[in-house]
Amino acid sequence: MKTSVKFSDLNKMSPLSKKRITEIKAFESQDLSDNPEWTAEDWKKARPAYMKTSKTEVHTKIDTDILNWLKSEGKGYQARLNAALRFAMRSGF
Known about the structure:
By secondary structure, this protein is mainly alpha-helical. It has helices spanning 18-28, 40-45, 64-72, 77-91. The protein has a domain at 53-93. It is extended and about 50 Å long.
């Protein structure tokens, strides 16, 4: 079992299974003409549909530059921090 992941590994994707390739091809063949194209603004507002989980309030210290970077993207920095931590957790980091 892999217990650590290098940062360089985080951007690598595992190969798609034959089942997933079939699903993608089936989706691509659908007529989606009644769906409007997403604008850049739509994509900015898009958020992953994670399962609702309970929240626990914690108090911790993080480096100032990291906090400034998270806040520089505007409202929602705590959600972005949570998403980054969830990504690291799922990646086995």
